[in-house]
Amino acid sequence: MHSTLPPTATSLQLLHSAISISADKLAAVQNLAKGIYQSAGDSRNRSVAAATCIEILANSQHRIALASDALPRGGTKDAKAWLSAALAYQYDCWNSFKYANDTREVAAAMTAITNLMVASSNALSMASALYAYGSDSAAWKPPATERDGFWEPVGASGGTGVPGVPSNLKADVTVCKEGGSGCYKTVQEAVNAAPDNGVKRFVIYIKEGVYEESVRVPLAKRNVVFLGDGMGKTVITGSANVGQQFMTTYNSATVAVLGDGFMAKDLTIENTAGPDAHQAVAFRLDSDLSVIENCEFLGNQDTLYAHSLRQFYKSCRILGNVDFIFGNAAAIFQDCQVLVRPRQLRPEKGENNAITAHGRTDPSQATGFVFQNCLINGTEEYMALYRRNPKVHKNYLGRPWKEFSRTVFINSFLEALVTPQGWMPWSGDFALKTLYYGEFQNTGPAADLSHRVPWSSKIPAENVLTYSVQNFIQGNQVSSSAAGPSS
């Protein structure tokens, strides 16, 4: 398509051409990844990296196709969300190969991925310009963020939130510890029973019990719902961590969801790897327009991997210590408890904890973490340590994992354990000029902004609706019927 653009191409034709170039480059990289996987031989590092790439590049391909289909229908915000994710998956593939870069083939693949990311970034910035400045491409401007004084156009109303998980759902299948009598013994067996590309919700009722398993909801399993018997009653548990040979952060998740329209309610997901085990994910989410309500996530470092796409967490409890809410999703946390827990084997020594580590790599990505009406505190065990020696226990709202990291806290209660500086650098001055860390009308002992680091911001009142459920994650699309695109 891009070779036959007319001289008077419309803005939509220009954008479709850019997306087409990205798709072509992606197909070539997918072939390279498959070749590396097939020739990996005894190199487990290389085969794990290539397998991860094959999975996430298939998702990237899916998102690019969805974006291309959405644009002629006026779905520019959807296209932005999907192109943002497509680029994020490409970056993650590059990053996977970085740790297995020991052959010419891998080096060539990394170069090809770098070129692919340039093309994808270009398509994404054009989609952002189309949304921000309209269809006259002469009026388009380069990507800009809140730090540059740029605020996206917002709808007239911020919306009041999404409805959450519907209350009248009937179970399609049941999971119970003993198995038999019409119920599955494992959560994974129940997921496998869901139809591929389901249009209706597929409701899995998981009875009270501790289920020790690794659960994967593939891309084709759409509109899957997990219903438990309550936090602490229905528990899915695992202990995978990067301290184990050939284990990666991405693969360490106890539960990982790719299929769109996912919902979960009334359960606990944990990673019990312990405070000395480094990255150990409890829950990784890549489901667009997903809703998680009244769930608990327990871990230490990297508890909740809000990896990509549009996510809504309502009345959840999230426990951890190092970067324990991280990823490159557009995620809203509403009415949640975010609790720091002791970090080391000898926690009385003290520590520096960052609660969040948002990983936006491109200024046009429509991603960020938004905390609305949340409580930021420590567990009882942690607060006992903190009170004995506050000077050595330092906690920060976030640090910039990637260059355009974006995190905001709105109308939340910040307990005393949060340092007066509020935010933590990652390394030297990395990302300090490009990140956006904002606060608006928070309360509590740590809400005073007078000692905040100079590279954080107070959100202007006239712009706070940018981060509403409606504007930030298009919450109206999470309807009472099944969610997610039909193609």
UniProtKB/TrEMBL annotation:
<dbReference type="Pfam" id="PF04043">
    <property type="entry name" value="PMEI"/>
</dbReference>
<comment type="similarity">
    <text>In the N-terminal section; belongs to the PMEI family.</text>
</comment>
<keyword id="KW-0063">Aspartyl esterase</keyword>
<keyword id="KW-0134">Cell wall</keyword>
<comment type="similarity">
    <text>In the C-terminal section; belongs to the pectinesterase family.</text>
</comment>
<dbReference type="GO" id="GO:0004857">
    <property type="term" value="F:enzyme inhibitor activity"/>
</dbReference>
<dbReference type="InterPro" id="IPR000070">
    <property type="entry name" value="Pectinesterase_cat"/>
</dbReference>
<dbReference type="InterPro" id="IPR006501">
    <property type="entry name" value="Pectinesterase_inhib_dom"/>
</dbReference>
<keyword id="KW-0378">Hydrolase</keyword>
<feature type="domain" description="Pectinesterase inhibitor">
    <location>
        <begin position="1"/>
        <end position="126"/>
    </location>
</feature>
<protein>
    <submittedName>
        <fullName>Pectinesterase/pectinesterase inhibitor 51</fullName>
    </submittedName>
</protein>
<dbReference type="GO" id="GO:0042545">
    <property type="term" value="P:cell wall modification"/>
</dbReference>
<dbReference type="InterPro" id="IPR035513">
    <property type="entry name" value="Invertase/methylesterase_inhib"/>
</dbReference>
<dbReference type="GO" id="GO:0030599">
    <property type="term" value="F:pectinesterase activity"/>
</dbReference>
<dbReference type="GO" id="GO:0045490">
    <property type="term" value="P:pectin catabolic process"/>
</dbReference>
<dbReference type="InterPro" id="IPR011050">
    <property type="entry name" value="Pectin_lyase_fold/virulence"/>
</dbReference>
<comment type="pathway">
    <text>Glycan metabolism; pectin degradation; 2-dehydro-3-deoxy-D-gluconate from pectin: step 1/5.</text>
</comment>
<keyword id="KW-0964">Secreted</keyword>
<dbReference type="Pfam" id="PF01095">
    <property type="entry name" value="Pectinesterase"/>
</dbReference>
<dbReference type="InterPro" id="IPR012334">
    <property type="entry name" value="Pectin_lyas_fold"/>
</dbReference>
